Amino acid sequence: MAEYSIVGKSVPRLDGPEKVMGKAKFATEEGIGLPGMLYGKVLHSPYAHARILSIDTTRAERLPGVVTVLTSKDVPPVRVGTYFLHDRYLFCRHTVRFIGDPVAAVAADTVDIAEEALDLIKIEYEELPAVFDPEEAMRPDCPAVIHPGLRNYDRPTYKYLGDDLPGPNVHTYFKIRKGNVDDGFSKADLIVENRFAAKRVVQGMLEPYNAVVSMGSDGILTVWACAHCMYNRIQYIVSKYLEMPRSKIRVRSSYVGGNFGSGERASRYAAVLAIKTGKPVKVVFTREEVFIDGFNRLPQIIYIKDGVKNDGTLVAREVRVIANSGAYTDYTPLVLRNGMFCFSMYRVPNFKLDAYCVFTNEPTSGAMRGLGNEQPINAMEQQMDIIAEKLGMDAVEIRHKNLIKEGEEDIRGEITHSIGVADCLDKVAQWIGWGKPSEEPVAGNWKTGKGLALGNKYSQIDTAAAAYVKVHMDGTVELRHGSDEVGQGCNTVLAQIVAEQFQVPMDKVRVTWGDTDLTAYDFGAGSSGTTFKTGNALVRACEDAKRQMFALAAPRLGTDPADLETRDGKIYVRYSPEREIPISELFIPSTPGAMGTLMLSTCLPYGAEIIGKGTWFGKPSAEDPATGQGRKLTAFYGYTAQAAEVAVDMETGMVKVLRFASAFDMGQPINPKLCEGQMEGGMVMGIGSALWEQLVMDKGRVLNPNFLDYQMPLMVNIPSGNNAVSFIAGVPHREGPYGAKGVGEAAMTAATPAIANAVYNAVGVRIGQTPFTPEDIYRALQAKMRGGKGNVLLP
Amino acid sequence: MKQVLDFTVNGLKKQVYVEPWWTLDKVLREELGLTGLKVGCAAGACGSCTVLIDSKAVKSCLYPAMKARWRNILTIEGLKAEGGLHPLQQAFMDHFALQCGYCTPAMILIAKALLDENPDPTEEEVKDYLSGNLCRCTGYVKIVEAVLAAKDKMKVRR
What we know:
Number of domains of chain B: 2
Radius of gyration of chain B: 16 Å
Oligomer: heterodimer
Helix content of chain B: 25-40%
Mean pLDDT of chain A: 95
CATH class of the largest domain in chain A: Alpha Beta
Number of helices of chain B: 5
Strand order of the largest sheet of chain A: 3-5-1-12-9-10-11
Shape of chain A: globular
CATH architecture of the largest domain in chain B: Roll
Structural class of chain A: alpha+beta
Distance between the termini of chain B: 48 Å
Low-confidence stretches of chain A: none
Helix content of chain A: 10-25%
Strand content of chain B: 15-25%
CATH class of the largest domain in chain B: Alpha Beta
Largest sheet of chain A: 7 strands, mixed
CATH superfamily of the largest domain in chain B: Beta-grasp domain
CATH topology of the largest domain in chain A: Aldehyde Oxidoreductase, domain 4
Number of domains of chain A: 3
CATH architecture of the largest domain in chain A: 2-Layer Sandwich
CATH topology of the largest domain in chain B: Ubiquitin-like (UB roll)
């Protein structure tokens, strides 16, 4: 890999000092001590599906301290959503569709008063038939129809996903066709068919949704939010709901307390309350609200059928997916479609996929780290082990045999580029001691085993980012980006790219972000894409700024701009570096006899300031809606291999992860330690969703909407020190900045099947549905002891 | 009816008027502007609001403010060592033991409580002691690393 000065080095995080001293500001700090600020609270539906007969807010309005109570009649009657399907009113108008659906909001002097006022709002409901099982909801004759007007809803993009819908509750249908699966299966020596499922899990970011919104006297609405995608998920949505032009909405954000795809839901309510009251309004969701009225991970049921030759070659694969989007869509049309891109990992000549996303009366699903890929990867990667065992092959060997290679066409017609997954596989297999029995001595009834799996995650191409670079007169370079610092370290990584471009130390780079008035459009921190798309935009912005600098410097150095380069705040002539001038001198007027304020000017003779602009714009190819085929459908793929060694308690079915290895191909790592951080975070989130995490549902009600009953991994649960390792195995991408790709999401995709495979290798039972609870494993162990197959437990 | 709360925060005597039902997190954040502590769940489950009361780690979102009367509170803003950052703060930076930073002040404080109580904890003891504090970003690996590294530095100093 190429050597760079700052790219590829683990420079310390720029936000480290602020964060360890407790000085880093998050949106939750906004508004503290702001005079006149009101507190908003949202009232949620207690029914899973019901008609609203009447709403009486008079008692709530009379409560001292209450400033306003809003319901659907107070806001424009517009349905909004993400840019796939507009299906959701700000407040339910006639119908509530899940337990937690917002029906009203209150602004009051204190949080306590606002909460009390919610109890005084009287709503009469008439219950409607509800449906919770996606396969039931999918039937053409399902008695509960959740969005009877679906066919008339606005679909701003991906209109084809709404064609050929087989039932009234199906909102998205995505197909992939390649070759002919019937032919393929007829040539197979072995056919393996299984059903897998993934339960609803949550992003679990620690900062709850919150926002402070105020309307300025100049008519500009300022939205301070724990933003994820300032432009797409906040400005766009607020502007649609309030029917305000986007130019009048200034979104501000600072550090965000984690996100993992969860978006943000408080700002729209704070905005409408701020406009109605003319006061700043702060809305902070409770943790329970975040659990119930957030956008959690899309539950999927996956039927997978594989045909293989005796030598392990995959000849056909047929997949059918039914996903439970809950009551509204949010990002689920994209999650469903793009989640299926994971199947491009292997060379499969005959491939057929039908994926459906279905409304139910459960809470709304949406984007979560991995964007729908983690669920089918669990199916695919358990399936690979099942096939290997049936053929008497090694799990590593069967993967190597079928892995797609550089230059090959994948199941969607895209030509594979930059794939380092084979190397990742070898690295984790070696570290875990693949093929050797477990070394850990285990007492009692515990049995140990090892397992491994592969994962991938594409990054979206149908997206864009723009960035600015301003060169200050002391030679400091300021970058302005519109992505989100959600903890991944993008400020540091982007600053490294700029430092490399200008060949200056990190302390000569300044980062401005989190303000739509100061930064250019950016899709935001999604799809593992900030390094790639914002990084590419910044490289171009740097080139633009340097072009301007060199044009100013060339006459002074008596040469052509093309001969100039910059380093350490100086501009020099490439072929005779002793001819140089400091950047600061460009700002000193060269006019003879300059005097007065002109001498203080930081204005340049022309161009006013050195501000470089750059844009990265994805250029997807056409896609055939009937087959899902196209030539350029993703920006890149990040790849991982993960291996686990687990212990399973034969008496209780409990699983402990003893050792864990990740290897990752993120292209050129810009900051290896930050990449490791993503891999370790992904490992643990993956372990959590494999073993413990699920929203427990009972007829649409979430039974565990809190961090005590919803079990996220704790420090005691995870391997650390010598028992956890992260390998970097990047293969540079020709379109990435310095060859970089991305790392955030794929980092958790293989953990679940790696653990499933390890559990199988330990005790001979296999669970298809995540999480693999002790109860499921115990029942499978009992079934196996009774002589049953104890293999894939049909959920 | 607001009551008078007299207590010591980061070495300074403070007097604040508080409602009897207020919890300590609210007083520290909203009345005293000590926003380094974060509220993640308001139910004592995530630990982001951890502060030290008389050197013991306490989840301030569950702690009635009036119970803090005459006690000594340490928040992240008061954590210092001679010459600047506390070894734990330095170790968290050096080892990349933070990402979004929402849990970080609390993690550092609970790690301090551990090291004050047990200057030489094992890896397992660190994990056990810090397990009441959630971190969703880092996967904990580098936090454990940082605490052990800070421990070594502090041992040398002693």
